[in-house]
C-alpha cells in the first residue's frame, strides 16, 4: 500500500510521519492499541480532575456549613438579630393580589415554609407626600417627612443660590449639608451594630460623621436584583464580629414601569426576577441554618399608575392671560426654572430675573398660574400651592424651602413645560390619594407576629424607621416623626431568645443554587 498522503506511526522514531506529496488528503491512521492508550489516559485524567474539583467544592460547602453552625449561637443573638431589608420603589402593593403566580417568593414571607421560615405579615404601605421614590426612600430610612428631610423630589433646587444642589441621578456629588438634620437608620444602628447599605440615597455620604460599614454601590447605579442579593450574602458570610447585622439593599421597578407601563410584560418580568431573587435569599438563609435568627423585610415605598392625560404649562400660562409688558418683555417660560416635571411640578424663579423686578415677576407668575389652574379647563386636573401655608396639613410639608409654585396633578395627570418637550413615559408616580401609589410592607422573622389576613391593615412609609428601631432595640433619633401606633400589634415587644440551631439543620440538605419558587 502506498503511503503517499498518509500519516503513519513509525515505531522506530516514535512519531507520526506525513507524506508531503499530497498534504491536502492527509489521513491519520493510528494503531488500535495506541488509540486505546491515549483515550483511556485522557478519560482517567478527566475523571480525576472532576473528582478533585467536586471534592474541593464539597469541602468548601462543609466548611462553610460548619463555620455558620459555630458562629450563630443563642448567646450572641440574645440581644440582637440579623435584619435583611429589601427596599423597593415602583412595586405596587396590588401586584401581590393580582399576580400571585409570580410573587410566590414574597408571599412566602407571609405564609412561611417547612424549612423554618415563620409566617409573617403583609400590610398596605402608603407613601408620604409627594409620593415620589427619592422622597420616600429617604423617609423610610430616616422616619422623617419630606418637608423635614428636604428631599422633596428627584431634583432639589436651592432657591437662594438658584441652582440645583441635589439630583438623584448624581447623588455622589450631592452636598453633605442636605442630610445634616437627618439620622438614617444605619447611623442609628451604628452605635450598636454593623451595617451594610447598598444603592440607597445617602449611603455614600458621611452623615453625623458616620458611613455604613459596607456600601457596595451608590443610589441610581444599575444592578440586577440577583446580583444585589448575592452581594448581601457575601457580607453575610463574613466572620462573626465583622458580619453586618443590618443589611439594606434596593430594588427599583419605577423606571421599567414608567417606560412600559405598570402592567406591561416588561414590568411583570421585573417582578418575576425580583421575586426569584428574594426566594433565593430565603433559601440561602435557610441553608445556613440561621432563619430563626433573621428578620426579612420587603418594603415597597411607592407604586406607579398609568398616565391618562398629558398637559403643558405653556397652555396654562395662556389661559392665565399674562401681561408681560411690565415689568419685562421676556417670554414667561424664560422666567422660570422647572425642577421636576410630571405629577409633581415645582416652579422656581429663573436666576436671570434681577432682584429689582423679582417680586413683581413672582406676583405675575403666581397669579397667572392660579387663575389658569382654577379655570374650568384645568380645575379638575391639578392642585396648585403658592406658599407653604396653602399646603394641606396632612401632607407634612410645612418646613420645606417652598418654590414659587407647587403644582400637583390629579390621578392620571402629567405635566410638561411645553408641547415640544420630550415625552415617552407610560406611567408615573407622585399622585395623591391614589391607591395605585401604595406599596407594601411584608415581613417575617422572630420579631414579627403572624397576620392571617393579607392587607387587612395599613401603615405609612414614615413608620418603617420606628419598626426597625423596635426590632433592633435602638433608641430612635430625635428627628423621628414616625410611630408604632399602626404596627405595634405585629411586633413582639419582648427580648427574643432564639433556640439553638439543631445539628440536623435543613442547611445541610437545602440546595445552594436553586430558588425555592
TrEMBL record:
The keyword Hydrolase appears for this protein: no
Gene3D superfamilies, A to Z: Alkaline Phosphatase, subunit A (3.40.720.10)
Protein keywords: Membrane, Transmembrane, Transmembrane helix
Superkingdom of source: Eukaryota
Protein name per Swiss-Prot or TrEMBL: Uncharacterized protein
Lineage: Eukaryota, Discoba, Heterolobosea, Tetramitia, Eutetramitia
A molecular function (GO) term: hydrolase activity
Transmembrane segments: 37-60
Record InterPro entries: Alkaline_phosphatase_core_sf (IPR017850), Phosphodiest/P_Trfase (IPR002591)
